[in-house]
Design brief:
The complex is a heterodimer of chains A (about 300) and B (about 325). Chain A is an alpha/beta fold and about 300 residues long. Helix content of chain A is about 35%, strand content about 25%. In chain A, a hairpin with a 2-residue loop joins strand 11 (about 280-290) and strand 12. Chain B is mainly alpha-helical. Chain B is built from 12 helices and no strands. Chain B starts with a helix and ends in a 6-residue tail after the last helix. Classes of the chains: A alpha/beta (about 300), B mainly alpha (about 325).
């Protein structure tokens, strides 16, 4: 892969949960994504995946660390420059029912980004652009005047994708874009995302908890646990040769569609005796080319 | 299956293979949405229209408003001229609702009073709406310390007995229509601001707001295009239900003698005037009392109907 589009260094996001306690949702994570690459980010619910994604986009102000996008530290940008920067970085959300304003028509949902960045000269131009985008994500352009509640989950997620594409971004964070959809629709949406990546040269950070889907779409995969990255490798390598005990646990939980194998499969279950990987005193070590694992210092 | 079985199972209508036609599946057809496109507002209106009680209440309110506007115009009498030869008349063809103790026509005075009561109710509700939405919107949107300070201020204001403030204000200032409206709104907006605050706080963590932020939307766009329109349902219901509250509060103040001053009539002051001889001249109390009850009942039923229509969770 060529140069890095985005570099995240030592990103931290703590939430104040009252009485002086801090929730360390994202605790010192670093990774980089090359142009045109897809980095998968997996982990169990509540491990800080979504928070990491939102902090990278500066939807949350970070507690520490830096994010360099094409060499610019986005946390140091003024509000005006940040607004311009947002054209290059977009997000697709998890819940297609909550991520579209119910009072807006599809045209207004997709056209809003065009309005914010003054990208459409006239009403006609705006309408044309919205129809092109709908066509691009496989929706009927005649439905532009409809409201979100009239669409199915898969169609709504396509609207969400069209909205993200409206400003011609270079980088898109997909925050569990398929976890709220039917399995049959999941494949459609993932294939659409791959297709768009090939056509438009997009770079993805693909957040998910479905390991097989992540393997399908990602070039590299990062495994997150309790706010930290415990393992990061090429996806083939990670699935074939998991090194960190937490990664092994995750992979052992993937169901296999064969009752004979599934019945004999040994699952590694985390409990109080083996869930402490001494993460506070660990650091990422490159054990083989491009394969990083968290190891005790 | 044996071929003989088929003859046994064949239907009374003789179907041949030629009767069937393969139509296939058209993917474009599958995407077509049959339902008529309805905005959230039109959907709510459709549900409201199906609610007979609410529509009756709306009709009654419409009639009251029209009568309050037209009533005093169609009569040959006015609300302030005394006719001391015809005091305390019973309802008759000459005076439809009778006359009061100064011989003033009760029909004109009742509708004129309804006009004043409605003006007070609507004006107070509108001012509550204006202040409450802005104050509550700022509290809910900015949260944190701003919310803390502003919320404490409204709680302190709310803790002062409302009648005490109102009565003090009416004693210090000259009792007039604007003074009464001011007295009613000085604490009336707090309830609205709390409702708006709660709605905004709940909405601002929704993903569509986050999506708009990720596109670089400023706070004005977020608040006025995304948050407030989605909070409109509870806001409208609160306004509708605060109108009868203001009307009742005005009637109460007038009943205490702190309301509008004679010869101007309001429904409350008319009931107060009628109190002196209500055993002998019950119609002097009956008409304004019935009218104020009907107005409040209609507003409350209509407000309940609106709440049902605007709440998507109750959608059938």
């Amino acid at each position: 892969m060529s140069e890095n589009l985005i570099e995240v260094k030592g990103l931290k996001k703590y939430f104040n949960v009252g009485s002086g306690n801090m929730l360390k949702a994202v605790n010192d994570i670093s990774f980089s994504i090359a142009k045109g690459e897809t980095l998968g980010l997996v982990g169990e619910s509540g491990c800080g995946k979504s928070t990491a994604g939102r902090t990278v986009l500066r939807l949350y102000e970070p507690t520490g660390g830096s994010v360099h996008f094409e060499g610019t530290d986005i946390y140091k940008l003024s509000p005006q420059k940040m607004k311009a920067m947002r054209r290059d970085m977009q997000m697709i959300f998890q819940d297609p029912y909550a991520s579209l304003n119910p009072r807006f028509t599809v045209t207004d949902i997709i056209g809003e980004a065009l309005d914010i960045h003054n990208m459409a000269g006239s009403k006609k131009e705006r309408k044309k652009r919205v129809e092109d985008l709908l066509d691009m994500v496989g929706l009927n352009p005649d439905h532009a005047t409809r409201y979100p509640h009239e669409f199915s989950g898969g169609q709504r997620q396509r609207i969400g994708i069209a909205r993200a594409l409206a400003v011609n971004p270079k980088f898109i964070i997909c925050d569990e874009p398929i976890s709220a959809l039917d399995v049959s629709i999941q494949a459609q949406v993932v294939n659409l995302l791959k297709d768009l990546q090939n056509r438009l040269g997009l770079t993805y950070l693909f957040i998910a908890h479905d390991l097989s889907m992540v393997k399908h779409i990602s070039d590299r995969v990062a495994v997150m646990y309790l706010g930290r990255i415990v393992e990061l490798a090429e996806s083939e390598e990670l699935y074939a040769n998991p090194l960190h005990p937490y990664t092994k646990t995750l992979l052992s939980a993937i169901p296999i569609p064969d009752p004979a194998i599934e019945a004999n499969k040994k699952r590694i279950v985390l409990d109080d005796t083996n869930n402490n990987f001494n993460l506070d005193n660990s650091e990422l070590v490159e054990v083989s080319k491009g394969h990083w694992v968290s190891m005790p210092k | 299956m044996d071929t003989n079985d088929i003859t046994v199972m064949s239907s009374p209508v003789d179907l041949k293979p030629e009767d069937f036609r393969k139509i296939g599946s058209d993917e474009k057809q599958a995407e077509v949405i049959q339902r008529e496109s309805l905005s959230a507002w039109r959907d709510a209106w459709r549900r409201l229209r199906a609610n007979k009680m609410a529509m009756t209440a709306l009709g009654v309110l419409g009639l009251i408003v029209i009568a309050a506007i037209v009533g005093p115009m169609i009569s040959k009498y006015n609300y302030y001229s005394n006719d001391l030869l015809n005091t305390n008349q019973k309802p008759s063809a000459e005076h439809w609702f009778g006359t009061d103790d100064l011989g003033r026509d009760m029909f004109v005075r009742t509708w004129y009073g309804a006009r004043i009561s409605l003006i007070v109710g609507l004006a107070a509700a509108m001012i509550d709406l204006f202040i409450g939405v802005i104050y509550g919107g700022i509290m809910g949107y900015f949260g944190g310390r701003v919310d803390n300070i502003m919320n404490k201020f409204s709680e302190i204001l709310y803790a002062i007995p409302y009648l005490l403030v109102t009565i003090l204000l009416l004693v210090v200032m000259e009792p007039s229509l604007p003074t009464i409206i001011l007295a009613l709104t000085i604490t009336g907006w707090i309830n609205m601001s709390w409702i708006v605050r709660g709605e905004i706080m709940q909405l601002k963590s929704r993903e569509f707001v986050l999506a708009s932020r990720s596109m670089g939307a400023g706070w004005r766009r977020l608040l006025f295009r995304h948050l407030l329109p989605n909070a409109m349902g509870p806001i409208i219901v609160t306004v509708t239900l605060s109108v009868p509250n203001a009307i009742f509060a005005e009637a109460f103040l007038s009943f205490l003698g702190l309301g509008v001053q004679a010869p101007i009539a309001s429904l409350g002051s008319m009931i107060n005037d009628a109190l002196t001889g209500w055993l002998y001249y019950p119609w002097r109390m009956l008409f304004p009392a019935v009218l104020i009850s009907l107005t409040m009942l209609s507003f409350n039923i209509f407000g309940d109907g609106l709440r049902d229509a605007l709440d998507p969770k109750l959608k059938k």
